[in-house]
Amino acid sequence: MSLVKRSFSKLLSVCLTSILMVAAGVQGAYAEESAATAKGSLVIIGGNLETNNADIYNKMIELSGGKEKAIIGIFPTASGSMTSSNEMKQDFEAYGIPADHVRIIDITEKNYNEKVNNADVVKAISESTGLFFVGGDQSRITKAFYNADGSHTKALTAVWDVYKAGGMVSGSSAGAAIMSNPMIQNTTSLETFEKGVTYDGNKPGLWVTKGLGFFEGGIVDQHFSKRGRIGRLVVALVHEKMNYGFGIDENSAMVVKGSEIQVFGASGMFLIDVSKTTLSKKGAYENVDVSYIEKGDKYNFATKQFTMDESKTLIPKGKEYYEGNSLNTNIFGSDAAKTALLDDLIDNTEKQSRGLAFSLDSDKKGKGVSVVFSKTANTIGYYDASEYASSALHVRMDIIPIEVQVKESK
């Protein structure tokens, strides 16, 4: 190759690289600007939304314009079938939306290449006042709605336009995970401590990848309390140098308008704050600030202020209901962290609650973590109207690596 050709080839390569970097920067800036200026609302559901959860269904309808005006578009993209989309359509109709105003927008794992830049599909999205992403595999959504070069498809631009104009964007399970950027998936909490973080979905570890970015308050995780995901969210936040994570539980929703979040539904939302967290050389995550709020409670991620539902009352310090707690040996089990936080600490005279998570090999040896929740001078607890502990603010959590050996008693 001649010197001129080599120089031209090198120049062309540099120019192409620059163009791609600029394009990526424009897309990121677009998402941030759009989220900050959007007039619409987000309804981020933690999965397993039950048909009889009238509070969440009615809120989605209200934010989409009301029963008479709402036009709901449902994306089946994350799912491997149309079952969940058809069920959501039936549910919206049962809550009063006319059948012709609830539309399944046919973007699937199999047909997305021909659909996401199709004029008819874009028109269907643009006509909607509310959009809903069903659950399944969140990577199917991002794969479909981003072009191969990372730019927005016409379908994704249309979704953003609906949101910016005042419409509602909602999703459950995988449809909740895509709300933030980055998004996370693939591993349990314990597996995350064992395998770490990856940026390749085909490799072991917690997969951190690009989400759609409608929610700008931090990283969103779902099925949170039921699947014990508090550990993996802490790791993701520290690894990505992001301060705040939001874990929404099943059959519950975080409804976002501007920078204010209100909790709806049967369970609640964890707020994980790692702004003062340190990661030691031994792998200990120290001084994680954990809060948990439920139905009616609000949090503003711009002002960092909580507003509790008016029915709630303070838990008097020194007059907690429970006395004493025990070690939880499956702290990442179903609802274990929530129980450790509320019953074993906030409504308990004890100053700490503890739990373990570990795996064993064939020799009954293994590794894991010890999780310690502690009251601080800033810790506050609240009873709901039935006088059950339902909210906890500013509890310290430390996650410490441990080695485990099981010995049988003689």
TrEMBL record:
Its EC number is 3.4.15.6. GO terms for biological process: proteolysis. Residues 1-31 form the signal peptide. InterPro entries: Class_I_gatase-like, Peptidase_S51, Peptidase_S51_cyanophycinase. GO terms for molecular function: peptidyl-dipeptidase activity; serine-type peptidase activity. Belongs to the peptidase S51 family. Exopeptidase that catalyzes the hydrolytic cleavage of multi-L-arginyl-poly-L-aspartic acid (cyanophycin; a water-insoluble reserve polymer) into aspartate-arginine dipeptides. This is Cyanophycinase. It comes from Brevibacillus reuszeri. The lineage of its organism: Bacteria, Bacillati, Bacillota, Bacilli, Bacillales.
